[in-house]
Amino acid sequence: MARRRRLRGRDISGLLLLDKPKGVSSNEALQQVKRIYNAQKAGHTGSLDPLASGLLPICFGESTKFSNYILTADKTYSAVCQLGATTTTGDEEGEIVSRFDVPPLNEESVTRVLESFLGESEQVPPMYSALKQNGQPLYKLARQGIEVEREARQIWIDSISLNSISENQIDFNVSCSKGTYIRTLAEDIGTKLGCGAYVTELRRIDLGVFTIEQSVSLEKLNQLRDEKAFVALDDYLLPVEEALIDWPKITLTNDSAFYVKQGQAVQVSKAPVEGNVTLFAETGDFIGIGSIQDDGKVKPDRLLKTG
Question: Is 301 part of the annotated catalytic residue set?
Answer without folding.
Answer: no
